Structure formats: structure tokens, C-alpha cells
Amino acid sequence: MSKIAIVILAAGKSLRMGFAKQIIRINNEPLLKITLDKIESISEDTYCVLGANKDLILEEIHFNNTVVIDNINYEKGLSSSISICIEFFEKKNLNYDGVLFVLGDQPAIETEYFLSIIKTFNEHKTKIIATNYDGKAGVPALFPKSFFKELKIIKGDKGAREILKNKPKSIIFESFKTNLVDIDTRKDLIDYNK
Fold first, then answer.
1. How many CB atoms lie within 10 A of CB 111?
2. Which of 32, 96, 139, 148 could form a disulfide with 5, with the two C-beta atoms 3.0–4.6 Å apart?
3. pLDDT digits (tens, 9 = 90+) for 21-77
4. pTM of the model
5. Which of 13, 5, 4 is nearest to 105 (CA)?
6. Distance in angstroms (rounded) separating the CA atoms of residues 19 and 194
């Protein structure tokens, strides 16, 4: 079995929401905690990148066995959260075969979906296992160690999208279906709670 780190990316400023969406309530649970609980239930190698509103989030959410990584450069976009994780693993001499990046604002994704990505990766250990957004690869996505150097130097707010776009032959789309709704705006929240 591969040794895989699971990283929840939750450092953003929530500009479209207008306030810290990580702690908005869905069924009386903070949004980020919904994903956190799922990830902690399937792995002991769990990390969460916080940045904007970090103190507010830490007041609201208890991180059990998840290591919180502080991204002081969160203003530089999603890529900075990805690269800081790889740097963190290197500094701590943590040796992972792959890293699964998960967004903290997709509460409808089932635990089974994450497990299916990991299972697919264990069958294809040199490939990126990505989520299929109408033919475009996106996150959640599991990257093998061979991509860590590239992940460490990405820039901007596109996250790993450039790597995913430029390496189509290295990607396997996860076939397990799930609900990929993002909660980015107040309308998204209202629609989701209907």
C-alpha cells in the first residue's frame, strides 16, 4: 500500500462569500469540519492548510489528528498552499508516495470518493488521479511523488491546474461519481441548503 498524505486546502479569503466560509454552518456544522471529519476518518496522515482567518477557524474547529500548516503567503493564491505543503514534508523528512489535495468547500463529496481515488492510485502509482470536470482534470487529485518538484514551484491562483492541463498523458480520471458542488457564494450556500 502506498503512503499517502491527504491535504485539505482552506487558506483562502472567501472573497466571493464576503466572510470566512470555512466556518459557515451547514446542518449546524462548520463547512470545513464536514470535509475534515471525512478525511480524518480514512487517514492518519492528514494536513490542513490555513491562512486567511486562521485564528477564527481555529476557535471554531477542533483539528484532532490533522496537522495545521500555516500559509502566511495565502495572498499569493491557491498555488502557495500547495507548494508550502511540499516544503513542509521536505523540512520534516516526511516521505510520501503521493499527496491527495482536497478542497475545504466541497461538502457533498462522499468519503467513498476519496477512498476510490486512493484505490485507483494504488493500481496506477505513477499516474495523477484527478477528478473529471466535463473532460477537464481538477481537484480532488492525487499526485505521485514524481510531481512534487513541480508542485513546489507552481505560482498564482490556479493551484495545480497548469500541471493537470499540461500532462494529459499522466492523468487517470477517477471513475467513481460524486457531487462536486462548491460553496463559494451566498447563493451557493442557499441552493445547497434547499
1. 12
2. 96
3. 899 999 889 999 999 999 999 999 999 999 999 999 999 999 989 999 999 999 998
4. 0.95
5. 13
6. 21
